[in-house]
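The data are quoted verbatim for reference:
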Amino acid sequence: MRIWLLALLALAVSAAAAQDFPPGGKPQWVELVSSSTPVIQVAATGGAKTTLEFRVKPQMHINSHQPHSGLLIPTELALSAPKGITLQPQYPAGHDINLPFESEKLSVYTGEFSIEVNVQAKGTSPVKVMVPAELKYQACNDNSCFPPKTLKFELEVQVAQ
């Protein structure tokens, strides 16, 4: 009887998870809102800021950058800037939610959220460079969490005189 219940539970979880996968593809829990490559313009000896907008799939949430528990995977934006350019993300505060099976509140992002990026150029000659970026996150719904994912995209940094 016990094995039968476990098999039924596994089948139900598999069926529920399969609904979240596009046909023949991997799940896309978060997307970059901009349809084009974000462009950041900065003076050769100055700074600038840009805002990156993201959207979490409906019925889903992702852990904030500072989850309340060290056991949860935080959302992180990794930027690979070339020498002379510094890119520093500033994360928004998450909002707290309660789930029926959790005794603690969870700090999450849902819907649309923004990450501000501070840009500094130090003695860099004028250049236009593509910077690889990765948003690393773990998505969950009200019943379960899915394996961590990485959303890869690029930023264009234009350093002027």
The two ends are 74 Å apart (CA to CA). The chain has one helix and twelve strands. The chain has a mean pLDDT of 83. Residues 151 and 158 are 23 Å apart (CA to CA).
